[in-house]
Structures are given as structure tokens and as C-alpha cells.
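Annex B. Sample input.
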Amino acid sequence: MKNKLPAYYRKSKVMQELMQSLELEMERLRSAVQLTGNQFFVLLADKNLSEHEEDVGLNPDLSTDFESRRSRVLSRLRGTGTVTKTMIKNVAASFVNGEIEITEYPSQYLFSVAFTSKQGIPYNLADIQNMIEEIKPAHLAVEYIFTYRLWQDVKNELANWSEVQTYSWEGLLTFQVKNNINIIDGVPYYCPDDNGNSVVVWNESKAYARRNA
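Annex B, continued. Sample output.
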């Protein structure tokens, strides 16, 4: 805005302060417009998320986090129409943000839902089960298949067994390694590097650091 003013105004302290005030207000306005626009999209909505839930026949649960609530809305939207293998896959995938494999067993009146890209049981499995129960044909049964680590994976990928022996059995079965970071029990665990540098364990959003001797 300053660049559009006459040159003699740019040296005025009064005009400079006025421009700064206007810039702050414009930034607030841009933020308000952005936040308002977000409410029209399920993946971005927060304040008005309850309206999206009501539109698809869901009762808003304000005690649940936004991500879970958005997943339920998306799954309800994807679950509209004739029930097919693809629909069930899309509904399940909307909750876990990962790869899902659906296998049908017609002679047994059964189909399975396998979570192939993530280890362990999804934290929102109950939501997935409830939604699939809503959309699947009543005469079909469903089973859920989960992926876990093999002992060989644990042996090959853990930096130091003694460093993680305090974690739960479930944590060892589902840990993930990426860029020298193990995800164990949902907690990022930073392994020491080849030179034995610092180990950092994140727990309850707080970092605890220890430097190896």
C-alpha cells in the first residue's frame, strides 16, 4: 500500500503508522476470509464441521477430535449408493489414510478388510466397523485383518534392543522405521546414529534427551 502513495506521504510518520495499522487489519481480514472458506470443505472445516455431520445424518460428537469426525463424514459421503467392493474399500480408506485390500468369499457369505500399509490395529477401528456395518448387505459377514512386524524385522531394524525393552508387546509388533525414527506405541523414538550421538525420546509432547557416553 505504501508504494501507491505519493512520495511526500512515505516520509510522514503519521502515514507510516496508519499504513502499518491498515496492513494488520488487512491481514486479519485475509485470515478471516480463509477460515470462512475452509468451513465449506469437509477436510478443512472445524467450527462448522457439525453442519457437515448433520447434512449426512450424523450426530456431532464434540468430544471426538476433528480428524475422526471428518473421517466419518467422508465415509458417509462415499458410502452413498449401491454397495460395491470399491465403495467398502473407499469407506475404510477414508478412516485410515492408507492402503486397504478387500477380499470376497462368496461361498462363505464373507468378505475381509485388510489394512496393508500400516501395522497394528487402527486407533479408530470402532468407527470403521460401525460404518461398514451400516453400508454392507446384512447377509454378509466381515472380518478384519491387521499387519504386524516379524521378529526378523525387529532384529534387523531396531538400533539397540535394550533401548526399547520398556515398550509394550504391541509396540514392538507395530513399530515403523523411517529416517532413523522408530514409531513405537505411537511415540516417535529417535535412534542413535553410527557415532553414538544423542538419543531423543518424545513422550506426551515433551522431549527427553540423553547423550551416550
